[in-house]
Amino acid sequence: xTTTYLLKLGELTLKGGNRRLFETALRKNLASLLKGSxxxxxxxxxxxxxxxxxSAQAKTEDxxxxxxxxxxxxxxxxxxxTPQAVxxxxxxxxxxxxxxxxxxxxxxxxxxxxxxxxxxxxxxxxAGEAVTREFPGLRVDVHKPGGVIEVEIRxxxxxxxxxxxxxxxxxxxxxxxxxxxxxxxxxxxxxxYMMASRGMALDAVYFHAYPYTSEKAQEKAELLxxxxxxxxxxxxxxxxxxxxxxxxxxxxxxxxWRTILLRMxxxxxxxxxxxxxxxxxxxxxxxxxxVASQTIENISxxxxxxxxxxxxxxxxxxxxxxxxxxxxxxxxxxxxxxxQDCCVLFTPPHPVLRGNPVEAGTLxxxxxxxxxxxxxxGGCV
Length: 381
Ligand code: ATP
Ligand code: MG
Description:
By secondary structure, the chain is an alpha/beta fold. The chain is about 40% helix and about 20% strand.
């Protein structure tokens, strides 16, 4: 038996002339997520359908649950285009609702095939009556229904019950590509996910300080990149060694400035990588005042040497909100593994809290880090 899923496009339907572009990206991403699952994609009249053998349902649903750019999706019944067949399918859907403990419902109907003998109002009445006749314990409530049965009359009749919520946003690849500064922490994977949900494809860079940081720390970043890549197909991770740069900072900079200067060097290096790759911006997991290096003054220092925009989707979010997303997307458990990244080992006991970008620039120049950055960056592409 083949199972069919119907996808609801949400925000995509607003895209007017660009709609084709968005649909093409959606299809490509969906194909990538469904790879190896045995499912196939089918698009008709602006509607996406996914067909799969019953044995592939779990994999297919997992992929649909990770696809950016859909408002929702539902397993659908396909019926002949007769009032009797449509009613019978609605009753079956009503049975599913009733057996899952739902006691109120409504029917929604759309008809693009105007040759169907009933209009959408008549379909709602006919199907609603049939369902309540069969299950007197189910009551119609159009305002706050426990369940919704949807009917779409197109080239075939589709009948589906409670839709699952999609990831929403826009298909990855429709908003250019950005370079994510991916640490092993909780925040940056979430930042990448959030930009992907606005349609941005991702590259990622991870700065390590081997042998001061363990190989495990890099494996953790690789695992995180893998998880974020499940939402952002095509994500590529570039690990970059920052050992020489950290050593230089230790040698030449005041202890209290270390973290800011390290961030400046990271941005500097990331910008070079991004420009080489054609990435249009940097993405970081900073959240205002979460730690000393993320006060607004220090953020100004951090970005003072680069010109590419730095997107910080978490800037106004609280830690609990960020953690909730990390748990939802499956990065949290990996992020809290104990392997430390370079920053933790490097953090001064009394960091500068409100750095001045001019002073930061002078200290940064004194590092003469240019050649070291060239070298670090050259080794990673
Ligand atoms: P995270 O949880 O993402 O590590 P954080 O709260 O620990 O964030 P910081 O350590 O101050 O914050 O880092 C701020 C941002 O700088 C990170 O969100 C990330 O984008 C970037 N960053 C920090 N360390 C690294 C690293 N080793 N490699 C790449 N990017 C990094
Ligand atoms: Mg960190």
